[in-house]
Design brief:
38% of the residues lie in helices and 19% in strands. With 305 residues, it is of the alpha/beta class. The protein has a single domain, classed as Aldolase class I (TIM Barrel), CATH 3.20.20. The strands form two sheets. Strands 1, 2, 3, 4, 5, 8, 9, 10, 11 and 12 form a ten-stranded mixed beta sheet that branches. It has a two-stranded antiparallel ribbon with strand order 6-7. Strand 6 and strand 7 form a beta hairpin. The longest helix is centred in the middle third of the chain and has 18 residues. The protein is globular. The structure holds ligand PBG.
Amino acid sequence: MVMETTLSVDDLILPLFVTFGKGIRNEIKSMPGHYQLSVDNLTKEVKEIKSLGIPAVILFGIPEHKDEVGSEAYNPKGIVQQAIKTIKNKAPELMVITDVCMCEYTSHGHCGMIKQGDVDNDATLELLAKEALSHTKAGADMVAPSDMMDGRVGAIRKILDENNFNHIPIMSYAAKYASAFYGPFREAAESIPQFGDRRSYQMDPANSDEAIREVRFDIEEGADIIMVKPALPYLDIIRRVKQEFNYPVAAYNVSGEFSMIKAASKLGWMDGERAMMESLISIKRAGADLILTYFAKEAAKIIER
Ligand code: PBG
């Protein structure tokens, strides 16, 4: 009766990795229970997600070909575009969100276009806008830019509005830190930078005021939901962002947060189920409205019972 925070299946968003080919179901070693799935294998997965009552998925694509400018990201027949069509066809009521970024599609693994050995912010905006439009044309319900280039929310809002997609919301990865906790994801999405790191465009873990500035820019440019990422090491940022802006806040309980609990639980060092539920409720208590989490299916089963 006096419990202050509750976790609902409605709060959860499940990330999915979609890959090229047929009949593919490669388990991601560092993320037990998660797979790179080919489009034909999505049908079964989507049925399960629906039956658990999870309202939304976020898609990451692993294309067959990568190049300097990430062309597959905005190919109308690209991997994510095909996945969106399949999911919307099998489960129209399941919300399909797409991650908008270049890193899975570029040969160098960076989140933008490279000029003179570094990521060129402004040249990347056009590519991201094309990618977001392409996802939306394929049927995506919401786009989520995760690249951290300055000005990308505005660029995406503009191109969507010009193409009569003014009803499609943007969930921006607004405060995204340069984090070691993305390690397992980069194996899953095959997006390890081939040189350097992402510190020129992702945030310094030591900064908190900067997160507020980043979020403010994204809101001014038209973001509808703002995201803080990772979640657990940044609960203070989630709280600050919620209090400062009173906007819908999403938190990304990232791959490393998932893998740590899985690994410790496998070693018998911790009760994995309890650690999972404690993590998720803490993220909500901090102020998140939505949680992107690899635990979505397991948590949904526990919440239901
Ligand atoms: C970038 C992106 C990343 C994640 C989501 N989108 C990785 C990165 O910035 O290197 C990480 C998610 C996770 O670790 O679960 N497109």
